[in-house]
Amino acid sequence: MITAIVLIQAAAETIPDAAQAIADIEGVTEVYSCAGDVDLIALVKVARHEELAELVPGHISKVPGVLNTDTHISFRSYSKRDTEAAFSVGLDDN
């Protein structure tokens, strides 16, 4: 599974509607509105790079109000749970 983070700039007045429209696109798992240089962040999960190549320019970028996208492909996921599991390998809970 390929995970990508899509940073999205949108026209201010369209942010709520654009966020919902993006969230409704197949392959988009979550959309966050945020402060800072970008207006929305979408998490995308697809099986193949070709799907990602279609999803971002073919669907997300065409949502009304979307001005620009910047896509980052994830290599590896780290979480607190993963880190704790790695350090507890071979240790008993006793």
From TrEMBL:
InterPro entries: Dimeric_a/b-barrel, Tscrpt_reg_AsnC/Lrp_C
Highest taxon of the lineage: Bacteria
Transcription regulator AsnC/Lrp ligand binding domain: residues covered: 7-76
A Pfam family it matches: AsnC_trans_reg
UniProt protein name: Transcriptional regulator, AsnC family
Organism: Saccharothrix espanaensis (strain ATCC 51144 / DSM 44229 / JCM 9112 / NBRC 15066 / NRRL 15764)
Lineage of source species: Bacteria, Bacillati, Actinomycetota, Actinomycetes, Pseudonocardiales
